[in-house]
Write a structure and sequence with these properties.
The structure is a homodimer of 293-residue chains. The first copy, chain A, is α+β, with helices and mostly antiparallel strands. Helices cover 32% and strands 25% of the residues of chain A. Chain A contains 9 helices and 10 strands.
């Protein structure tokens, strides 16, 4: 029996989805959200995400910030599809040693994020895990996106520039609990310069860009010298740290995007970090890539 | 700091929902599903549920049966609202020692349940828990119910008879992994004899009936001698074992329900176990109640 250890999440999911009926989603599991078409003006977005104690947060982390992060991660996924979040369900699987204070502060943190991004909590579940087990927080949510504004990972075209918002790397220094999901920026983008493909950077450029490129049937060429670095970080950290929750998207150059971005969001960097190329052409870069891993 | 230990789930949820924006659901958290009105012909149902290793299943349990149970529990919740399940999201928080075989069989078990009840998987998430931690499986799902067919816990009326499907107790002997959610029966009920209030029995009559009665602003009077017992179980077990996943509902006597039920579902018992009374009147029974706890 093959143990899960050492198996990549992408490989695992690809094996598993063959075993169940997976419905009529425009894209199967693999994009930032599932996209459902009920025939209305808007498409329905569905997302589930989890935080594990000892992996995504530590017990003595400020519970309010953990609550913010739990919701903000999912808001970031809706943003990555060009959509907006709506309704949240939260499942808390907690050891009995967890304090009421912790849980209340976690809810307060969630509440701040709900209010900031116009979402609501509509249901939840609490249950106990055995003594010694890690707490697991699972968030599920629905969102929506106008039919014409939805952006998948798969729409990137040969020659498109690859763009990234903000600066990358250094999430573990604390940023990962306080990040701002780029919902406002994503909504502005889909309305004014519709990206051809988009996702949020949860696992780092090194893991996420290959996913976007593969979904778009392209390779990619990176300009490592252009990588926007978080203060104190090197290129390796910017590529691999993960939990940046910045937008990664593709859009052709020369259409005025940079100029209008700077006027609209002067405080947030927008950087061109490369371009989509033919699948074969990108291969050489993949070599340089592995070097960083 | 008050520890969670010893705090009831109902009390905890009541404290927590005050801390966040909770939206426009017809009923707040507390019913079997959240009910959302988007203005269409159908209401949208949302549900989240979790299974914890060592609590809801053991590691050496047949993974296919655990997968069935994970989905069937949620199907049962949609049934309890009078609705049908549609789209599922699954989050697996697993220790690295879990085998691929286990996870694949879990998915196969889910798939069997999806196919039986016309639902699909549209997304998922897998993540690791630290060594020694219990596996946590979190399921979120959407469903729907025709506007006229939705049944809440809160609609019970003074004098309504209290009904229960099937036989109760003995879940731990194995039934809890193989139960049949009463979706067909619930759909038939809402179309032909609309229950005034309904829920599914997940925590046992002893915990669930007081919830239904309270939501309906009633007390209840039980006929313990009428309790339909699973073979080998006594009344105490029937009241307290939980995980029966039978329907508990209220509906007036004398409208032909029993006769038509027997013709439609000859293999499944329908039993009148009591009636809704004034809040005060039920109090005496609550004493007898505590005796059973």
């Amino acid at each position: 029996m093959k143990p899960l250890e050492g198996m990549g999440e992408d490989e695992l999911i690809a094996r598993l989805v063959r075993l169940v009926p997976t419905g009529q989603a425009e894209e199967g599991p693999g994009d930032d959200c599932a996209v459902m078409d009920d025939g209305g003006m808007n498409l329905v977005l569905l997302k589930t995400d989890a935080l594990v104690e000892g992996v995504h947060f530590v017990r003595d982390a400020d519970a309010r910030r953990v609550g913010w992060k739990a919701v903000a991660r999912v808001v970031s996924d809706f943003a990555a599809m060009g959509g907006t979040p709506e309704r949240f369900l939260v499942t808390l699987a907690l050891p009995a040693s967890m304090t009421l204070d912790w849980v209340e502060n976690f809810y307060r943190g969630m509440g701040t994020c709900f209010e900031r991004y116009g979402a609501v909590l509509v249901g939840g579940e609490t249950c106990r895990v055995p003594v010694g087990s890690a707490a697991v927080i699972s968030i599920a949510a629905t969102g929506r996106v106008e039919r014409g504004n939805v952006v998948m990972r798969s729409g990137g075209n040969l020659g498109d520039a690859i763009w990234v918002t903000g600066v990358l790397g250094g999430s573990l220094a604390g940023k990962h609990l306080d990040f701002t999901p780029r919902l406002d920026q994503a909504r502005w983008l889909v309305k004014h310069f519709k990206p051809t493909a988009m996702m949020d950077l949860s696992d780092g450029v090194a893991r996420d860009l290959p996913r976007l490129a593969k979904a778009s049937s392209c390779g990619f060429q990176l300009d490592l010298s252009a990588m926007p670095l978080c203060e104190g970080c090197d290129v390796k950290q910017a590529l691999e740290d993960g939990e940046d929750f910045e937008l990664l998207f593709t859009f052709p150059e020369g259409q005025g995007l940079e100029r209008e971005w700077q006027q609209k969001f002067p405080a947030l960097k927008l950087t061109k970090i490369g371009r989509l190329v033919k699948p074969g052409e990108g291969d050489e870069l993949k070599g340089g890539w592995d070097h960083f891993r």
